[in-house]
Protein 1
Amino acid sequence: MRVEYFERTPLDAEFYDKYLKDRIPSKLIDMHLHFTKPEFCTNLQVDPNSWASQCSSKMEFEDYKYYANIFYPDTEFFVNALPSVTKGIDIVGNNGYIAELKAAGKAKYAHMLVNPEWTGDYTEKMFLEGNFDGYKPYPDYVSGKRGAEIGMFDFVNPDQYEILNKYNKSMVLHLPRAGRYPDDNNIKELITIREKYPNIKVIIAHCGRSYAMYFITEAARKLGSMFNDFYYDLAAVLNPEVLDFMMANVDNKRIMYGTDLPVFLWHGKRRWTYTEYFNLVREDFKFNKHEEGPEKEAGYTFFLYEQLKNILDVTDKYGGKKTAEDIFYNNAVRIVEG
Ligand SMILES: [Zn+2]
């Protein structure tokens, strides 16, 4: 089900030609995006206070292909399929769908959602039958509250961690808690996961939801050298300072491109303070306060294009084309398959 507001305007084409066309690598893997079908979404419990939940949450693979051909007209694109993670989703059905995408060669990789109430045996059976590359666990799935105060051992149980550890697989981890990456309990649990399950490749989604500088600098300070033991996806991160901090402080082979589609199908960008971010959006969502007014909004390009430009500006500073090729493609292959 495609969203009706998705359109590439002449201004987007101009932005693309000017800043992206000659710089975007010839192939990319989107490590963070969600696929579902309407039949898995009949019992969703959507949080009305979350801005992201007002954006699209429904994307089938064919919808993605349509969007991606428009976003990336000159790039060969691949995906790591994640299921929808909204509370109430038909988790078995949705996991089955992304397993099918992988089996059919449509998705290069797939990470399944786990229910912490499942036994190890049941989880392992589903994991192996679906030929999954890892888990995409989610705190909301348990609590129904965004950034809730529940821990990493509440939304994945110890037997489930053991399975990933046994098969050396990855986990695209959306960190819980309002304090985000540097939350003391998150730091403690991440260290525990590293020590107890050293074979799990922990991919910290959205750089730990570090959309503003405070979160990433504090997390790096608290973790010390262990900050570099994790992998990172850049989904929804377009803060140039955060991107620069990542490139300067993390091994560039540990960073991967991601978009969090279908959330970001609109035109807009962000502004930041040290601790906060604000979405500036053209399209009419309930959360949109139209802060800059219609004249400025008419000049917005795709949020995704702003992100691409900011990533490419930073990779230019840290190794150029080679680094961009790693972040957009090579790192994902090495990390997921390695
Ligand atoms: Zn996501």
Note: Residues 233 and 297 are 28 Å apart (CA to CA).
Protein 2
Amino acid sequence: MARRRRLKTSELEHFIHMSKHKYKTQRKALKGLFREDSFRIEPNVKMADRSIFKYWKNRMSLFSQMQCKDLYMTRELWYSVTPETVAKFAARFIKSCLPEAQVILDVYCGGGGNTIQLAQYFPKVYGVDNSLEHLYCTYRNAQAYNVEDRIWLKYGDWPTLSRKRRFEKLKIDCVFSSPPWGGPQYLKSQVYDLEAALLPQGLRETLEGFLRVSANVVLFLPRNSDLGQIAQVTRELLGDKAYCKVL
Ligand SMILES: C[S@@+](CC[C@H](N)C(=O)[O-])C[C@H]1O[C@@H](n2cnc3c(N)ncnc32)[C@H](O)[C@@H]1O
């Protein structure tokens, strides 16, 4: 049953710029999502959508709190969210490389799989996504993990925000990103072409934009990614002595 409730002012503050007049339509939509308690998972109600069923079966690996807390997922998020152990590993890896880091930017934050784990280790995490529904899910999922006060969400198209040089003055210590891989069919080819298949920008443009925000960049990419492309782009953008670690 939907648990109707209003979006509180203190919650709206975590959606950057959303109280501005320019975002009137999005604000209204966001209020509607909170009011209707949209996208809440009933963990014990079997997923009717056959194409999502295999992800639903493994729901506890996506969010370990699924059984005891309210979690929120759109259809797309079922196959997009980074599983919790993987997200935790990435967050701990960044913490071990940058123990003094304070501010992390998660570009393409989706349903918050990574944002939430990053917020367990760092005091301030920005999340960016062009889906208002996904930003809403990130916030609600962060509430389940009690880290909602550490996250700040920006609605928008990343290439546009990047072109407008947003985030460049925010003293971001590290950019993390799990960009869209083009859906589950990414495994169909033996080698994943990071220039042609990665969305919404190829590897070079993605890295160029991120490196303008921070010298530390962590990407979550398909396991069949073309490592030669990573080596080449890293050298071209950062010089022959550039250091790039693949885990
Ligand atoms: C692979 S999912 C990220 C999953 C996320 N790391 C998580 O664990 O929940 C990619 C996200 O990128 C968002 N996205 C796609 N194109 C975008 C764009 N042009 N600008 C901003 N976000 C975009 C999608 O809405 C989706 O939520």
Note: The mean pLDDT is 95.
